[in-house]
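Help!! Second protein's tokens look totally different from the first
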Amino acid sequence: MDNSTKQHLSLEPDGSRQFVLRHTADLDPLMDRIGDAHHVLLGEATHGTHEFYTWRTAISKRLITEKGFRFLAVEGDWPDCYRINRYIKGYADSDKQPADVLAGFDRWPTWMWANWEIAALVTWLKAHNTSLPANKRVGFYGLDVYSLWESLDSLMSYLSEHTDHDVLAYVKDAISCFQPYDANEHRYARAQHYQLDHSCQEAVIELLTAIRKRAPRYDHDPEASLNAEQNAVIAVNAERYYRHMLGFDVNTWNLRDRHMMDTLNRLLHFHGPDAKVIVWEHNTHIGDARYTDMVRTGDINVGQLVREEKGEADTVLVGFGTYQGRVIAGDNWGAPMAEKDIPQAKEGSIEALMHRQSAEDRLLILGHPDHEHPFSGYLPHRAIGVVYEPVYEKRGNYVPTVLNRRYDCFVFIDETRALHPLHRQPDGAKIPETYPFTY
């Protein structure tokens, strides 16, 4: 009898199975469920939980080594993640340590990617890529839309270095348009909302058009055209996002998730028709929005779009949850990071029901969604963001969810620990242990 069979806990009427989760070998049922799928989306119930990062790392390593997945796409800014991509592929900063590269994540919340758990992943990815040819190395990319100024600065630096004066003029025009706002997206948003200034929409659209016309000029580097175009696309979409951020006429949540889906499609096209991708994002982005209360307000998300565009048979959505523990978060937007308690999940929630079943960490392989299941109705499902106040947790921070429709699989960690941010010094001289289980 193999290890996973020994730890098999239950079989539900819909065919769902639960397995104790202690070692990477316990992920075998998940690897079987993923099969030949090309799109695996790994969630998290918070943006500051140690175990969510380490278990996603364990799953990603197996997908890369056993199933040939080609790149990770994460809920991070493109310019910062692209520096990681260049580093792990040996194209830049080879003399640096992973922590030095990750220190470039200086936009709040810094801890999401500048943490020791990601440093361990980056170390492994760089070592894994060392023996591979350039066109087979695993990549790391950011999907998010927020990096307006950083993307413009990246284009300015790159085009100045390569003396592309024609396109450089468009970058300078765009930067000049945004300059009065002092790299503060909220100032730009307020100016647009109260119609105090003309928008910079035309400037960034002209920039994107110019970049796309000149793309063949950047073919000395296999990823140069991709990087230049993506930074220009971010300028267009970020300007639109911030222009509408304070209004009610445009759904900025949908703008953001459609941007992330478009970026994912651009990356899949770049890597070829057989490319396989691992996505790391919060549950609110990777869990199918159609099976939450998001559908009432017309919100969509990446998980829904991937299922619709790529097909459910080629997509596996893996949600994550916790009953209690500790987390890194801020009291409000831009506040200093702090380690906070996660109280016991409220009664009747998915997490409370799972804890009542067993305090073991577990993997759920969810069954046929049309059949009876303990989680087949709408139940509260914990969701903690970068801003978190535990005292108000039971009045909010829960998303009504049909678990066995929102996800294909679910990882439950009964009690979690906080992430280890790079911008905090480790205790003593020792780097925090980031792999609490055997490889």
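Here's the second one for comparison:
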Amino acid sequence: MSEPVIHTEQLTRKFGEFTAVDAISFSVGEGEVFGFLGANGAGKTTAMKMLTGLLLPTSGKAAVAGFDVFTETESIKKNIGYMSQRFSLYDDLTARENIRFFGGIYGLSSASIQEKSKALLSSLDLLPVADSRLSDLPLGWKQKLAFSVALLHEPKIVFLDEPTGGVDPMTRRRFWDMIYEAADRGVTVFVTTHYMDEAEYCDRVSIMVNGRIAALDTPTAMKDSFGVTTMDELFIRLVRPGAGEGI
């Protein structure tokens, strides 16, 4: 693996007596597509919040894009992109206005925003609807625009939280083509998903169970290790030990 751009050692987060993330350790390399999976309540969202500078850890160590998660959270935020299924862009703004707004948030110059806006809208075939409210666009178009906006300031890492939820399989596959293109440019992609088939698209996958990393490897190596043929089977086996054995 290349020099890690995300590195954690015994990273832990507690809420009172409850341990949401329990001493997780892993590294992610430059240009790697890293899948971060787990059932609801497994701790993956809490872990992502720590890595993006939104939540301080209780203990352990972690660095993101070379910055410490305890003391350099603002630097982390400037060097990452973020996209969520639930909130990324503003529906009451047009596609062009969203690009301008987030370009300003990222500290880009007016000239840079104008140049990048035109290139982005053209590459996504959105020029004909650039001045339409985002609420009027299909979900698949919104998701592709949101991903592109998350990369507008050329971050080293982009965090994608359930980015393809609610879109059709063809749109999901096209979205993953965009992820690969970003990775080919050296952008590290850290993605959570509840679609197990999407785990197959990742270079490596981590599966969290009850706040801990239960498995971490390439999808192929994981399936071979657990003697299963699909990621769905593997996930069930880890979440519910003993499930599916003897079938």
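Reply: Different proteins will give different token patterns, so don't panic. The chain has nine helices and ten strands.
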